Amino acid sequence: MYENKYLSIYEELVEKIQSGQLKPSTKLPSENELVKEYATSRETVRKALTMLSQNGYIQKIRGKGSYVLDVSKYDFPISGLVSFKELAQKMGKPWGTIVNEFALISPDSQLQKQLNVTEKDPVWKVIRTRVMDGEKIILDKDFFNKKYVPILTKEICEGSIYEYLEQDLGLKISFAKKEFFVDETTAEDRMFLDLQDDKHIVVVKNYVYLDNANLFQYTESRHRLDKFRFVDFARRGH
């Protein structure tokens, strides 16, 4: 029982953070105060705080203490190239995908420019709503050049397309060019997302390339403004 004391402290503090009892940017009580409050050892308190830090609930600042982070938003890696399934699994959240539209189309003039194709080149169009923890938070509008993705099904789109492309088709997805901007919400956004009163949305455009530098996918991902923070790690060059 004593050995699991840090888990009970951790779970109690998580509950307070998730319920809003401990608000973002709030400073947690000091280690000494927590030792007295929970009638336990400093080592036990430190284990609980370390676990909170590792799971993204607090930030420990040397010499200043521990501060509550905003857990209502998910970290979206700017520089990474990860699938929604991989992102959700990393966060440990229940997830799902709703396929709103799936078709093989002839690209219009705008899509021809985005994918570097002609009107005679067939393109897979996939419109999907991404659900995490019971909320519709991303609208993904994917377009794949059929030349590189000869077969695609609605069932595949309900899971992970990247998993299918890499494991079944053997494609080597290498890098992406990304564009980020804030846009006004559209009727389509309001139809497919749980938008509350939001008037704006974060748009991420992806131009995705294979390892032979061929552009095979263009994606427009529309993210709820209240659910994401976009993070990156940068190192200054010398």
TrEMBL record:
The encoding gene: treR
Domain HTH gntR-type, residue spans: 3-71
Protein name in the entry: Trehalose operon repressor
GO biological process terms on file: negative regulation of DNA-templated transcription
One GO MF term: DNA binding
Swiss-Prot/TrEMBL keywords: DNA-binding, Repressor, Transcription, Transcription regulation
Residue stretches spanning the membrane: none
Entry-linked InterPro entries: Bact_HTH_transcr_reg, Chorismate_lyase_/UTRA_dom_sf, TreR, Tscrpt_reg_HTH_GntR, UTRA, WH-like_DNA-bd_sf, WH_DNA-bd_sf
Keyword Repressor annotated: yes
Keyword Mitochondrion carried by entry: no
